[in-house]
Amino acid sequence: MELTEKSRKWFIATLLLGTFTMSISQSSLSTAYPTFMKYFDLPASTIAWLTTGFMLIMSVVMPLSPWLMKNFRFKPLYLSLLINFVVGTLIIIWAPNFLIMMIGRLMEGFSVGVLFPSYQSIILEITPTNHRGSVMGTVGLVMGSALAVGPIISGVLLQFFPWEAIFAFFLIVLTIVFLLALKTVISPLKIETTQFDFISVFMSLGIIGLLYFINEISHMTASSYWNWGILAVSLILLVLFVRRQLRMPQPLLRLDILSITNFDLGVLLTSLSYMSLITVTIIMPLYYQQILGLTPLWSGLALVPAAAILSWLNRRSGRLADRIGFKLVIMVGFGLFIVGWAGLLLLSGFKNIWIAILCSIIIESGNAFAMMPATTLGANSLTNDLIPHGSSIIATIRQILGSTAIVIATVVLGDRNFNGVFFTFLILEIIAIFLVFKIKDTKKVAANA
């Protein structure tokens, strides 16, 4: 089916609205932890599983996305994911206890895990190559702003309503998305029935074990042998998973594409960019509260300027990448990361909120010029049939390294060692900018062809 320009825009808008709402659900609950602790009479470590469990199930289903897209038409798949998320949300709202609430939360995580790689693959598929930068800039706007906006929305709702209002918000928006999807979403990919590889799926459970270990590092003691056992088993499963994917004629996930020039760099650079973004959105509210003495509400609102600038820049950086090439744009992005982290490190002694906000703006501006341009760079190096595999690989590795970034920041932070965090991520992005120089400039290649 041929898409007109108008129908293509409606299609993309519907996908992005659904993804934005689901993305908010990933980051919004941290604000509500004290409320949940009081309501269920449980400690923070247990309540944190609302986010940790969501993240684990989300990560393990991401590699299934290419197989699902190849074997099922996209429209029914998308509608099914929306329905599953809505049912999970209803279970959460009506949950009589925390265990039932977790079941609903895992259902939400499943939908998000399948959707994140799928919607990027579809958008790349229906967008001409020379316009992908600007369109993926909009995708970056949705991802970046949702990460920052989630805690703000939940914080505002909790000021006036009980915690169920957060999930009622998801319910209302996704019901609207479902009705829009019935009219605007199509199935642009050809269906090719392939056998489902249960062995690969079992081996991919190593991702859950690895992420669990990463998230437990900051709580581990010398006697935490159980966690080390989980790590060992998980690494064995992942090694077997990689080996199986490289040997199978029709693998669950085409890991061999990591050897393709620019795709490998795209995966690394988008992940390194995401590591800075997720760290700044978690560390800076703590900095505002513990060092500058702001209230939780104002520490959340202090994130708004950086989130707004990030949203404003995303589409513009994408258009710029379409015009001048991705290498220069990505270089600007990592340059901004370095300036922002260096500013926080060198100027934190002033304990000035405006300096902190300005440095946060610079860091999140760097993400606008780095993350989605790097993702698009990677996608453009693949043929269309490999894009679903590429999107799944990028999303999975980005999620693992994002979780790693949180752990690194938490461990380094210790007892308010914010300068240690700033220095660590400054070094990380200095290393990243050397990778940018290895990008093969596609604009020059096209000009010489």
From TrEMBL:
Residues 11-444 form the Major facilitator superfamily (MFS) profile domain. The chain crosses the membrane at residues 48-69, 81-103, 139-160, 166-186, 198-214, 226-242, 263-288, 294-313, 325-347, 353-372, 393-414, 420-437. This is Major facilitator superfamily transporter. It comes from Lentilactobacillus parakefiri. Its main location: membrane. It is found in: Cell membrane. The lineage of its organism: Bacteria, Bacillati, Bacillota, Bacilli, Lactobacillales. GO terms for cellular component: plasma membrane. PANTHER family: MAJOR FACILITATOR SUPERFAMILY MULTIDRUG TRANSPORTER MFSC. GO terms for molecular function: transmembrane transporter activity. Keywords: Membrane, Transmembrane, Transmembrane helix, Transport. Coiled coil: none annotated. It holds the Pfam family MFS_1. InterPro entries: MFS, MFS_dom, MFS_trans_sf, Sugar_transporter_CS. It is a multi-pass membrane protein.
